[in-house]
Automatic annotation (TrEMBL):
Keywords: Membrane, Transmembrane, Transmembrane helix. The chain crosses the membrane at residues 99-120, 173-203, 215-242, 262-280, 289-309. The keyword Iron does not apply. This is Putative membrane protein. It comes from the Bacteria. It comes from Chryseobacterium populi. Pfam families: SpoIIM (PF01944).
Amino acid sequence: MREVYFIKQNKEKWLGIEQVIQGKIKKNPDDLSSLYINLINDLSFAQTYYPKSNTTVYLNHLSSQVFQKIYKTKRVEENRFLYFFKTEVPLLVYHYRRYLMYAFLFFILFTSIGVLSAIYDKDFTNIILGEDYVNQTIENIKKENAVGVYQSGSTWGSTIGIIFNNIGVGAKLYIYGIFGGVGTLFALLSNSVMLGSFQYFFYDYGALKDSARGIWLHGVFEIFAMVVEAMCGLILGASILFPKTFSRFNSFKNGFKDSFKIFLSTVPFTICAGIIEGYITRHALKMPLILNLIIIFGSLSVIGFYYFIYPSIVNKKINTHVNDAVL
């Protein structure tokens, strides 16, 4: 069958499905499941005969939207809060997983730029971190207290200030995505370059090990959440630049709704990072090294699992349920 005829034959059906996704037409869960299976058949046909066509891309996107819609209608018996973190966010992360990859690639690139800049320009760290901070940290390193800067102020006061500051940074990374994603990349560049030069600074003064024992206690959650927030900004930007078959406004509306949910999922990790920085990081060099490592790698395992592994598990589980329901 020629692609033009295939599109003509199914165009009205696909437009009707778009209406369902946008909430303009109401369907019960059983009808939604039938639509999904019908659409999957069209997608399979398109992947077989028009693998590189825009039609295939469109059907893949449409089927994923129906897929999410089905399970939003089946959450009545489940606690809404638990459903949000256990199912809704993981499905969205899985759907937009390529943006998470893009965000990490940009993060690694920008952090490397910070390291290289600090290597080849000795004044670069002073410019990025500020001379007062650099001089104070050098004095702390000489006293064999590389994390001394984290020991000032009260624990609760520092914690609250850190949490609000980090949420503010994350909000900028996300909201700046409205400028086609360019604003998000600029904010990520700024923070990543700072991180790269910051880490090289400690390496240059022979205190990388001690600094890592302290900084990455809270840094795992803080930095990983920052990258996920950048992912959200890129999703927002892409929804404006690449509306596909939707109007630009509807594409933006859908992109904002999905990306904001993912952004909200980072807030608990950001809060945890602030608590760790305010209460634990100040004791980093007095703690047994094994405890530092447990916290650091434990944090990495939790947040890495949630955003990299768990979404695939949920997606596979949901697909299995759909197929079982159809059979």
